Amino acid sequence: MSPLDELQSKALAELAAIADLKELEAWRVFYLGKKSQLTQTLRGLASLSVDDRRQAGAQANQLKLLLESSFEEKKKTLQQAQLAAARQEYFDVTLAGRPLTLGRLHPVTQTIREIGAIFSGLGFQVVEGPEVEWDRYNFEALNIPPGHPARDMWSTFWMDYKTESGQTPMLLRTHTSPMQPRVMEKTKPPVRVVVPGKVYRYEATDATHESQFHQVEGLAVDEGITLADLKGTLYEFARRFFGSDRKARFRCDYFPFVEPGVEMAIDCWVCKGAGCRLCGNSGWIEILGAGMVHPHVLERVGYDSNKYTGFAFGMGVERMPMLKYGIDDIRHFFANDLRFLRQF
Questions:
Q1: Which of 28, 175, 214, 294 is catalytic?
Q2: Would residue 125 show up in a list of annotated catalytic residues for this protein?
Q3: Do residues 113 and 79 both lie within one domain?
Q4: Are 124 and 36 in a shared domain?
Q5: Of the residues 312, 317, 319, 332, which is catalytic?
Q6: Which of 59, 263, 277, 314 is most buried (CB neighbours < 10 A)?
Q7: Active-site entry in 11, 141, 258, 293
Q8: Sheet-wide strand order for 157-163
Q9: Are residues 292 and 239 in the same domain?
Q10: Are 21 and 82 in contact (CB under 8 A)?
Q11: Are 23 and 144 found together in one domain?
Q12: Digits of tens for pLDDT over the chain (344 positions)?
């Protein structure tokens, strides 16, 4: 019985010296665990005689109960001491909790929503269309027939779509303009829509070009619409998006589906028109292309070009925040760098 007495004395002495809960748990495993000396003693009782087994078993069980009760008392004492120490530390219960880290909208999504909100306030409806498009809508319905040199303006991702009658050309849309004939086919004038969405170009990637980016297309068709309506609408958009002190300039440009075609530029806010690196020393920064809808485009969807006129415009979505916030590389929008995205 001497080993049990020695075990009791040693265990209680070590228990009295323990100062934290981590050490206490280690003590419990050592003296009361499945591989402890006490457990091994209880398992070895089978080799004793009946009388010795009864006496040794009783003492071993008493020792186990003593150690377990001593362990619980020590645990309670240490927990109370830990709580008392915590209460001595100053804690202001009126402080707000730690804020949770929340996600945020991508800057491109924010820009699309801002542009959509501006044009919604001007009476336009926001609609969307397919990214995989037919050649008929992407080119032919926009006054760009097969073999037209203007097709070289768009580097196209082509796909072969097989039907029972043969292959039909499909593509990843190169601009959001295919929604012009799609909307007009299903809508009687007046029409006022803006169309945000992804577009695709097969071209090299650099600081100002991406193979996938976003555009917003705009279309308005009604009786008596003139170029003055186009200029007034786009000027108001520029004021609301870039600031009320913005100046605008329109110059002639060529797009197959508008006549006349124009490009719109705003005054450079860095040099105030004096000329700098940002604006190429011109004092102006181009933001979009536009024009009056070509009569052939109206006639292809069944509109009477003698009765109805309209204007259309298209802008690159990434270009808007690049100009507004001075971002020098379009690839930042798609690199998923949180240091960049957290700024918006």
A1: 175
A2: no
A3: no
A4: no
A5: 312
A6: 314
A7: 258
A8: 132-134, 166-172, 157-163
A9: yes
A10: yes
A11: no
A12: 467 778 788 888 888 898 888 898 888 888 888 777 777 766 766 666 777 767 777 777 888 888 889 889 989 998 888 888 777 766 677 878 888 877 889 999 999 999 999 999 999 999 999 999 998 999 999 988 888 776 776 678 888 777 666 667 888 999 999 999 999 999 999 999 999 999 998 888 888 788 899 999 999 999 999 999 999 999 999 999 988 888 889 999 999 899 999 999 988 776 776 777 767 778 888 889 999 999 999 999 999 999 999 999 999 999 898 888 888 888 999 998 988 988 88
Q: Is 191 a catalytic residue?
A: no
Q: How many domains does the chain have?
A: 2
Q: How far apart are CA 178 and CA 195, in angstroms?
A: 10
Both 156 and 193 in a single domain?
yes
Tokens 């020098």 belong to 328
Same-domain status, 79 and 120? no
* End-to-end Cα distance, the chain: 76
Taking phi over 0 as left and psi of -120 to 50 as alpha, with beta for the rest, 208 belongs to alpha
Q: Is 240 a catalytic residue?
A: no
Write down the catalytic residue from 201, 214, 294, 319.
201
CA distance 67 to 70: 5
Given 154, 216, 284, 290, which residue is catalytic? 154
Q: Is residue 99 part of a domain?
A: no
Q: Judge if 78 and 117 occupy the same domain.
A: no
DSSP string of 84-117, one letter each residue: HHHHHS---TTSPPPPPP-----HHHHHHHHHHH
Q: What is the CATH number of the domain that holds 265?
A: 3.30.930.10
Q: Containing domain of residue 13, as a range? A: 2-88
Whether residue 194 lies in the annotated active site: no
Catalytic-labelled residue, pool 27, 134, 199, 215: 215
Question: Is residue 215 flagged as an active site residue?
Answer: yes
Same domain, 82 and 114: no
